[in-house]
Amino acid sequence: MTTQDTARGAGxxxxxxxSGASTWLVVGLGNPGPDYARTRHNVGQMVIDELADRFxxxxxxxxxxxxxxxxxxxxxxxxxxxxxxxSYMNVSGRPVGALARFYSVAPANIIVxxxxxxxxxxxxxxxxxxxxxxHNGLKSISQVLGTKDYLRVRVGVGRPPGRQPAADFVLxxxxxAERELLPLHLDRAADAVVELATAxxxxxxxxxxxxxxx
Length: 214
What we know:
alpha/beta
C-alpha cells in the first residue's frame, strides 16, 4: 500500500460535501464472520459499528449483500447510509455498487473506510481518488464503480514486524497494547467520517492528518 494522499488540486472539482448533496454512503471494509471480526483488516467495519452506536442506528440485512442502517448527523443534516458488506474483502465492489445504485448515490458521495498498512497505528489519512495501493477491496470497488474518485478514510494499522507477511498481519487481531488505544482510534476515524459529510475534504484533512496528541 502507498502513502500517497491524492487530494484534489486547485483546478479539480470541489469537495463532495460542497456539492449540496445530503446523502452519503459510508462503507466499512472487512471480511464476514466471527473469525475475522476483530482483525486489523476489519477495522473499517469497526468504525461503522462505532458510528452505529453513536447515532443509535441498527444495521439490518439488505438485498445488495450488506448490513445497512441510516443515521442523521443532526436534525435536517446529512444522512449517512452506514454499510458493512457481507462479502469477502476482495469482492467488496459488488455490494458497494449495488448499494450505490439502489440509493442513487454518486461515487463522489461514497466514503470508504479501510485499513492502511503504510500509516502507523493510531493515525489517519483522508483522500479522494488516487491509487488503491494494493488494497484488493479498493481495487474491487474502483472496478465496479468505474472510477477511483470516491472518498477514503485510511485507518492506520502499521506495518508487520520483522518478516511477517502483510497478508498474515492484517488477518490477525490487534496487539494487547493496540487494543488499549483502539477505542480512541475508532472514535477518531468516526469523527473523520462525520467531518467529511459536513465540511470539505480539505478542512477534514487539516483537522485529522496531524498525529493525535496524548
